[in-house]
Amino acid sequence: MGVSGAYYLTDSIFTAIFLGCALTATSIGISLRVLVNANHAKTTAGHIILGAAVFDDIGGVILLSILFNFAAHGEFDVFSTLLLITKVLVFLLLTPPVARVLLYFARVLKPASDNSGYEVIITMILVCLFAWLAHLFGAPALLGGFAVGLALSRQFTSPLNRYLVNPFAFTHKMEQSSKALVDVFTPIFFVYVGISLDLSQLDYSTSGVLLWLSLLAIASKLVAGTVAGGNWQKKLIVGSAMVPRGEVGLVFAEMGLKTNIIDNKLFTELVVIIAITTLIGPMLLKWSLNKHGHHSQVE
After folding, report:
1. What is this structure's pTM?
2. Which of 177, 201, 245, 279 is the most buried (most CB within 10 A)?
3. Interval 151-192: pLDDT, tens
4. How high is the pLDDT of residue 130?
5. What is the signed CA dihedral for 187, 184, 248, 237, rounded to 10 degrees?
6. CATH code assigned at 82
7. Which residues, at least 6 apart from 23, have a Cβ–Cβ distance to it below 8 Å?
8. Cα–Cα distance between 51 and 239 in angstroms, integer?
9. Distance separating alpha carbons of residues 59 and 66, to the nearest angstrom
10. Helices and strands in the chain, H and E counts
């Protein structure tokens, strides 16, 4: 749906595919905050949303990797594409356990009396290391940060989990200590995106298309929620939680601009669509949670 709709903004099918892939992203962080506030994060719907968002973003990253490979070589080669997909999947399978092994070493090497921000330093080292490794594999660097996040997560499961149990006390401290990094770098990223925007590129001729694409971006996620089990309220909760593209969509858009897959005009239009979904998504989710609660009380 996203690709067919995006084709109205550009005559290039390649660029339309990129726009469609960028709109597959889901900002689970935004929806998760709404779910936590409503005490709904640990429900069946909450688990479905979390799992779907992970697979959603992995699929988006793989598609973007293929597009970047195509943009770099100027042609679509089946063998190199299959090789790239294999490398990305192997990277995703191997790096979280490897990162968790490194966490064990980091915990052992930590000085007994240390108040120097050791956990923050380890977080930055791991993110930079695996971002570099992802780039080496031919995948977007953000895949490395994603792998480190899986290694830190208590919910991450793998056949090696019985041997690589999450050192929760240490990873929890890493998470808490790293919030300062998020507070510093997130505004910088949004400022950078804002500087890249050229609102003069928007005109009345494309406003209708932008509105149509925004509706498509919202509707496609709501339709995806219908495959979830349960009543229609639960399906609506799942679909609504998948709507916001947020910072994940902005990262994809920024990468497309840097690699010249999209120009400034398309970048601005894509950011506008992402902003609309990011505003509408939480409101839809909050409304659907209220409806679900009311329905449960009636029953």
Report:
1. 0.76
2. 245
3. 887 666 666 666 677 777 888 888 888 888 888 887 887 787
4. 92
5. -90
6. 1.20.1530.20
7. 2, 6, 213, 217, 220, 245, 249, 273, 274
8. 13
9. 11
10. 13, 0
